[in-house]
Amino acid sequence: MAVLLQLLGANPLGGLVLAIIVPVVVVAFGTYVGVLMALQSFFDASSWQEATRPDDTEGES
Questions:
Q1: 32 belongs to a structural domain
Q2: Which candidate, 8, 28, 3, 4, places its Cα nearest to that of 18?
Q3: Other CB atoms closer than 10 Å to residue 40's CB: what's the count?
Q4: Cβ distance 46 to 40 under 8 Å?
Q5: For 19-34, what is each residue's pLDDT tens digit?
Q6: Which residue range is the domain that position 48 belongs to?
Q7: Does residue 43 belong to any structural domain of this protein?
Q8: Is the dihedral of CA 15, 17, 21, 22 positive or negative?
Q9: Is residue 33 assigned to a domain?
Q10: Is residue 12 one of the residues assigned to a domain?
Q11: Number of domains into which the chain is organized
């Protein structure tokens, strides 16, 4: 793994990938995981559709 990172760092395009694309992917993945955790903890839902679906039992007496 370290050899692959060294080879990418030696190539100018590989350096660009390491400097820009890798952090963007890490932040996007972290945001995705954070949103899923928030959905599960606040709404007891595992997807956005499940969290925003109107619940039929709220209005019934």
A1: yes
A2: 8
A3: 13
A4: yes
A5: 888 899 999 999 999 9
A6: 21-52
A7: yes
A8: negative
A9: yes
A10: no
A11: 1
